[in-house]
Design goal:
alpha/beta, D-Maltodextrin-Binding Protein, domain 2, two-stranded parallel sheet, 10 helices, about 40% helix
Length: about 290
């Protein structure tokens, strides 16, 4: 009887230990699954990262809190990553190019890597009656600053140029990206609309009109796509880098594990894998072009 009681106690103790280990493992797994990411970076890439983090959190069924992206620019993001205050940076240039511009210590960033995930192209849409097929970067700047006011100046029809663009209230990265490309601020005298479709409808109906929008927002009935400096926008010319009005977006990560939480590093790696997966590329494709070599 005593032997039986001892065995029963031993079995009960083993069972309790097993339950305790199981619960501990379950809690640990839940914490890992719900680990939120913190990032910062390029102001134009912010909108893409925000959407990707939301899709990633949704896939992991994160409920308590959401991963955060800060619209702070490349320089501040790189500094925060150096200080280990964010999990990754999203940058509009690879770290090798940023290093020279920001005077970064090469030793400090020797374990860093910039992974390209998307191309963000902008297309120029012109009314079919304007009589122009190609335009230069300088001419674009002059049009949207209202320095060139008639298509005849560009070899087209004698039509007054009427420019439109997306309202700043929409908070799209397309406006700062376009201004960066032309090297000038957009004229406040141009009319704005809240949707690319509304811009397209205006251009299709009004002779002399011109606008710009994301490549994936364009529809053939909006008007004619203009070549820039002789290069017409297409998936091929955008991915090859021939088409000039496009930028590449990167995830910049630090693979150095020193003084870094292992679970957090695994989550960053998992997020990168998600961005490069079919699901991630499907999310990117809603507004951008997934990067491919």
């Amino acid at each position: 009887m005593v032997m039986f009681t001892k065995k029963l106690i031993s079995l009960s103790t083993t069972y309790l230990l097993f339950c305790l280990l199981f619960l501990t493992a379950s809690v640990s797994y839940a914490e890992d699954t719900n680990l939120t990411l913190h990032s910062g970076g390029c102001k134009t890439e912010y909108y893409l990262i925000k959407d990707l983090l939301s899709a990633y959190d949704s896939q992991r069924k994160v409920q308590d809190s959401e991963s955060k992206a800060l619209k702070i620019g490349n320089k501040k993001a790189v500094n925060l990553l150096l200080q280990k205050k964010i999990d990754f940076a999203f940058t509009c240039k690879p770290i090798q190019k940023l290093a020279k511009k920001l005077n970064l210590n090469e030793v400090e960033i020797s374990t860093w890597e910039s992974i390209p995930i998307a191309k963000d192209p902008i297309v120029i849409v012109s009314n079919t009656k304007n009589g122009v097929d190609n335009i230069s970067k300088e001419q674009l700047a002059d049009i949207f600053q209202r320095k060139i006011k008639n298509w005849k100046t560009l070899g087209g029809k004698k039509l007054k140029i009427r420019s439109f663009y997306l309202s700043p209230k929409v908070q799209s990265g397309i406006l700062p990206l376009f201004e960066e490309f032309i090297g000038a601020k957009l004229s406040k005298h141009s009319k704005t609309k809240n949707k690319p479709s509304a811009l397209g409808e205006l251009v299709s109906k009004i002779p002399g009109s011109i606008t710009f929008m994301a490549f994936n927002s364009y529809r053939e009935d909006y008007g004619k796509l203009l070549s820039i400096d002789g290069v017409k926008p297409s998936t091929k010319t955008i991915l090859s880098g021939e088409y000039p009005l496009s930028t590449t977006y990167y995830l910049t990560i630090d693979s150095n594990s020193e003084d870094r939480d292992e679970d957090r590093m695994k989550t960053v790696s998992d997020f990168v894998d998600f961005c490069l997966s079919k699901k991630g590329k499907k999310e990117i494709q809603k507004k951008y072009i997934p990067y491919s070599k």
